[in-house]
C-alpha cells in the first residue's frame, strides 16, 4: 500500500480535478473548452511537479530521518485550531467593517481572492510549523 | 507538575548521536531536542519506544517534578 501511496494521491487529485471541470462544463455549457482543458492540464502538471520535487528531495537526503513525526502533527493540529479562530473571527470582523462602511453586496471575485489569500496564508503557516 | 527526563544524559552515556537515535526511532531530530530540553512530552508510544531503545526502566528515564 505504501508503495502505491504517491500513485493513489496523484490519481485522486487529477481524477478529482478532471471530474470537477467536466461537471462544470456539463452544468455550464457556455464554459470555454479551453478553460476545462487548461484546468485538467494544469492539475496534471502541478501533481507531476510536486512529485518530482519530492523525489529529488528524497534522493538528496543524507539520512533516514523522517520529515514529520508525532510532534509535527501535534504542532499542526494546534496551528489549525488557532487559525480557525482567526479565520472565523477575522472574517466576521471584516464583514462587520464592510457593512459599517456601507457595502451591502460583495462580488464573488472578491470572495475568491479572499479565500485564495486565506489558503496561501494557511499553507505558508503549515510550512513554518512543520519545520519547527 | 512537570515531567523531567534523563534522555540526553543516558544517550550520551551510551554514545548515541541525535541523528542515529532519530533514524532508529523514526522521529525528527527536532523532536529529540525538544524532549531533551523538556519542551515536549512524548506520547506513551514514543515513551515506550525510548525505554526499549535506551534499555532503561520508566523511573530511570522519567521523573515527575513536584511544584
Automatic annotation (TrEMBL), chain A:
TM ranges: 7-28, 34-54, 79-103, 109-129
Domain of life of the native organism: Bacteria
UniProt keyword annotations, A-Z: Membrane, Transmembrane, Transmembrane helix
Transmembrane is among the record's keywords: yes
Name of protein: DUF2178 domain-containing protein
Native species: Robertmurraya siralis
UniProtKB/TrEMBL annotation, chain B:
Domain of life the protein comes from: Bacteria
Pfam families from the UniProt entry: HTH_3
UniProt-recorded name of the protein: Transcriptional regulator
Keyword DNA-binding assigned: yes
Xref: InterPro entries: Cro/C1-type_HTH (IPR001387), Lambda_DNA-bd_dom_sf (IPR010982)
Molecular function as annotated in GO: DNA binding
Signal sequence annotation: none
Residue ranges annotated for the HTH cro/C1-type domain, each copy included: 7-61
Species, as recorded: Robertmurraya siralis
Assigned keywords, A-Z: DNA-binding
